[in-house]
Amino acid sequence: MTKTWYSDLPQYYQRQIKAAGLDKAGLTRRRLLKGMAATAGVAMAGLSSRPSQAASQMTYMCWEGYNDPRIIDPFRKANDVEIAFDLIVDSPGGFAKLQAGASREVDLVSSDMPWITRLGPAGLAQELNPADYADVYATFYDQFKPPFEPLLNEGKTIGVATRWGWVGPCVNTDLTKPEIWKSYDPVFDDANKGKICVMDWGDWPILPMALHAGIDPYQELDQNALEEIRKVLRAMFKNTRTLVADLTQAQKGLLDGSLLGCIGAGSYLTSAVRKQGHKNIIAVVPEPKNGLKQGIIWVEATAILKDTDQPELAQKLLKHVVSKESGHVLSLLDSTCNVVTNKAVEALYTPEERDILQVDYMWTAWDNSQMHRIAPNIDDMLAIWQEELAAAQ
Amino acid sequence: MADEVPRSWRDPDLLIKALPTVLLQTTCFLAPLVMTFLLTFQRSRNFQLQWSWDLWTWTDVFSKPHYWTILGHTIFMAAACVAICLIIAFPIAYGLATRFKAWENEIKVLITFAFITDATLKIYGWALFLDKNGMANYTLSSIGLPPEMVAFLYTDWATLLGMVYSLSAFAIFTLYLSISNIDRSLILAAYDAGAGKFRAHWEVTLPLCKPGIWAGSVLIFLLSVGAFLEPKVLGGGKSPMSAELIRQTFETRVNWPLGAALTLVLMVVSVFIVLLFSRLIGLKRAGLAA
User: Which domain of life is it from (chain B) (predicted)?
Assistant: First the structure.
């Protein structure tokens, strides 16, 4: 007689399990959790007399925006699937959560590319066969077609790039000339004391400052290089009016003129304000300094988790997220607007939308930028940031 | 009436009665605290936890002065908040308990509403009010004063303003309770003995308010050291306090062992300060009970 997962239970429970059909399904932790979630869902829906009838459930960990109903609803209806969202507020936090065990419940994840790539060596993400995504890649910009090096782990593709943008000074052209921001020098100008905003977004403000100091933060750094970064951060804090983590605070400051420039953000910050009609707010990329590109390109990517029990649906959802229609929605959200990796989306943009997204500028930004990856000395740089911030007070 | 028998922790009846509380405290407070403590003996490298079982994190905490600079700043801000809250709260509580009896309930409702309004809403409200183009500067400039006269948004003063605004209700209500419970005949006796209003207030009312002052101070102090939103939104993040340092360490640096260690340091220092002050002001347990 074959031993089942429930054969050690009393006869009564065994009969109940058989009656419920759980013996054939096989009860895994994932299925149990999803079953519990579904039961809870049905209970909640019962309150509103609208029971869930979807054939399957999925969990999608993503940034806000990827869960936009205009993206998800067509997929949900077409595939008869209920999708639960686990919204991330920062990439390291999302990664830590997956590593702490959430990978057992999550099927698909959309996050910053370095963190998606990291899912590979962490043993959390499925390796993708680019041939399976040939239809998707066919409409991609050449820059993101495989082999797209930043998304490779030991030669294997970990995810598919979805959305991207650039990091550079964000300024109000009514108050300052973009030409002045061909370098980060205005950040340190005494005339701009108390007018600089720094985004409190982990490594994002540190990396441009390192580049300004002539140091490539994406290389292994020695103590001298770290000391140079310390000096440039110290100088930056002298002119800093505020550190903000909230996008809207920075946007408001740029609009009302209380802030001259924002460091550590870029198109991610400016595009939503531009969508509101404020075309005077732009994100520029400084020119290369001594051969070192000063801008940074950020890319978001989507990966399928290894433990998914819905591999086919997860693949379908991934393809759906990077499709032309979803890409158009994803690039013009209310909270933020950013270009996507699917070239076909460009055909859907109106001239106004192209202007909002600075489409005509995006390849200039690309050419003058580094591709964002995990900086090897990020721990040291963040520790220096904390020390200099404390010293600045 | 039978004399009260002193209860001993060896008393089985007492032990059984205390068991639920002990279990609750152990599982909900002590166990997480022990886990937090154990976490401090691990390391974090490239955003990943490494089970190392060494003193690296504690060495880092005790060798880097900036953690202590921020902690010192936090304690200073919390102490300032306590002092300002008490100064503001005392006349309000005194008035409520003695002079404005007719509107007592209405005033209490108003204070409660302000107190229970969402903290985020209140703090962002202040940020908008104090903004360069906010109501404060607009009002000042409309009466002919120079623009941007109110320029203390993104300063420690703004942080303090937010903290006092959020926490002063604790002082108002604890003081109000103390003042309400004062036996009026004691104050009248002081007058009969020749004391003036100020002396009666200083030597009778104020000492009798000690439990209220103390309870309010402890509440405000402990909540102040954990202040997070005010330094970030009103203080502009340039002058972080310990809660923000801990958040940065957990979230941005993803260094959980260091975050755990900084949390424990903040807890221990806060409790130490509270105990130290309770000893300094000579507040005996019996006094508190009274």
Answer: Bacteria
